[in-house]
Automatic annotation (TrEMBL):
Domain Tetratricopeptide repeat protein 5 OB fold: 1-61
Disordered as annotated region, ranges: 54-74
Entries under InterPro entries matching the protein: TTC5_OB, TTC5_OB_sf
Protein name from the UniProt record: TTC5 protein
Length: 74
């Protein structure tokens, strides 16, 4: 689950409710083989319902700012 803290997650067998999912079909070809699968995205892990309950606020990973300047000298 993207944007979730490493200490939170879902397990096999959990009932998962997904509000407003965005479903995308992925189609990739590699070394003559075709791989196709569906991906489901939600805006935040807090929008899920796991076993009838919303995840705690601590399930959401804090934002991180990453900067790069490719033209800067090493």
């Amino acid at each position: 689950v993207y944007n979730a803290t490493p200490t939170w997650g879902v397990s096999v067998g959990d009932a998962l409710g997904v509000a407003e999912p965005v479903v995308t079909e992925h189609l990739h070809q590699h070394q003559g083989q075709t791989f196709s699968f569906l991906g489901i995205r939600v805006s935040s892990p807090l929008s899920l319902v796991v076993n009838g309950k919303r995840p705690p606020g601590s399930a959401l990973a804090p934002p991180r700012l990453a900067l790069s300047n490719p033209s800067a000298p090493p």
